[in-house]
């Protein structure tokens, strides 16, 4: 649980001399006096100080007047600053403190209500909310606030989710949760397979396509019977339709009764999008294990995830498909459907910002389940769990080939994400927020968790058991849905490569654990990381990544040789620092993690040894690869394909300056607490036209200059500045710089 909260101010009383608030520290930026109101009630004069030196960006209050419109919803467990740091990291705009002592009773009451009830005082400025957060103060002289900005409406929804320990999950529909077909799409797929068979001479492939056609024809006949008679004959038994009422959405909607036939034994449903038009009938196959995933999301009477849908399908179709998946409205209530289901135009990118256009959630608190990664905006792809496309006609047994079905793997991943997110929130963010005072600065704010940090999974390529060509599209996607329901002709599309995935382990927050296995695995399109094996090396490496605010990735390949060995490489902030080879992927991963830790340790010791006066034997060796961490690994008997180079040997020619600069900056970030505050600043260039242009750069950490560099080449100037900055960090005794440096205790030698 979080640390005890510091005590608020005592009763109103005069400070030294009985007038004026706490004096700002020497060298602090000058404050500006502003009048503060709650509605029309005058609260007093406030002294407002910019958060950054020099008052960059100015003050956020219009007309230099602070007018509180309302108080935020109370929070049960989360102080406002922790919520704001999660949804709007490092958004502190300024500080406020009472100018009058003693403060007016109305201001004192506002401060105590905000402090004790975990509320913030909200100032609305256009589409932005300015949250005044009551802060404890070491001086105990005046009511003090931090002012943080957030998008309007986002704070209120986030309070509820964080109090309930709830995240958001976004589902794709077609070939992720369902496969749907009309009569026309069935006919076109049967025709396409028949044409393939006509030109095929491999008997194995012909047999595979023949079996696939048979499955299509069987379901097509059921759909035709449903269209003609509103019944189907399933295993000799006639099943009639049930009239299912479509619950009206918010905004009003006429009562609709749809004819539906549910066939649990086939995991299939027949429905009619427009009950008055029989040609809009659809045969829908539900992905196995959907019930297990759905039950987890709302188990024990509480929501673990708020559910959203993002699809490229037509809206009426999407609404009906989701109704079939969630008939009782337990995941999305009928009143929320209009805002929770997002239909994206075919060819456009999906984005979480568009999904949460109502500001019901911040993208950092959301994960996605989809069978395709490249349809998502680049900035959201690290939050996507990619599942293999659902292909029940081409490979009807694929879902059961693994020990754990695909959607159970997705459930396990969701368990792991939720557990990791709130563990970081409780043990790091909350604890450190409770230790902050008004006098602290922006750099003292802790790292805020992101769902993408915990979405660690192993993805696989689908490897069919026969020699068939790539399967044709089995269901309707995107714009095709509207064409189908309107009777337009089908235009064949070549299917994208199929992917199958499974997860090795993902503990539920209730203490349950799940395990699955699979074969034919490979790296996912975005270079996704492998599932964490039960190894101390992998765990320690992930912890180091979180401490350094750096991304740790495991990328895997399978050799083309007869030995079928696996290779795993470790990327730390996009730099390769370890490679492992083994007969299994887990063995290669553990080996890669161990080598990465040793390379990190060696690199660190090579820098601290000169400072401590200890000669480093390795310093006389060849520098190895250009990133300073990894020596080239060769394997004569295994053909291994690496996805990215590890960096070239550091040379003086211009082509390698960028590599060397990247390496130096990585080392600088390892020393610093907050690498986002290490910046290059472009100094004034030589303006004399008679002279050759010269570039000047300086490296700064929280306003402190660490190094300068100049040269006729822009990259060389940056490199010189970075090298001088690194020397400064390794040798400095300046307390103003050292307070921003990272203690390196976490790089502990790993015992053999």
From TrEMBL:
Q: Could you tell me where the Pro residues compositional bias lies? A: 1-14
SMART domains recorded: CPDc, DSRM
For this UniProt record, the keywords arranged alphabetically read as follows: Developmental protein, Hydrolase, Metal-binding, Nucleus, RNA-binding, Transcription, Transcription regulation
EC numbers for this chain: 3.1.3.16
GO function term, MF aspect, one: RNA polymerase II CTD heptapeptide repeat phosphatase activity
Chain segments carrying region Disordered: 1-26, 490-520
Q: What Pfam family does this protein match (any one)?
A: NIF
Cofactor(s) needed for function: Mn(2+); Co(2+); Mg(2+)
| Enzyme class of the recorded protein, top EC level | hydrolase
Give the GO terms filed under biological process for this record: hormone-mediated signaling pathway; negative regulation of DNA-templated transcription
Provide the primary localization.
Answer: nucleus
> Cellular location of this protein?
Nucleus
All copies of domain DRBM, residue ranges: 536-602, 659-731
- What is the catalytic activity of this protein? O-phospho-L-seryl-[protein] + H2O = L-seryl-[protein] + phosphate; O-phospho-L-threonyl-[protein] + H2O = L-threonyl-[protein] + phosphate
> Domain named FCP1 homology: which ranges?
162-410
- Gene Ontology cellular component annotations, sorted alphabetically: nucleus
- State the name under which the record lists this protein: protein-serine/threonine phosphatase
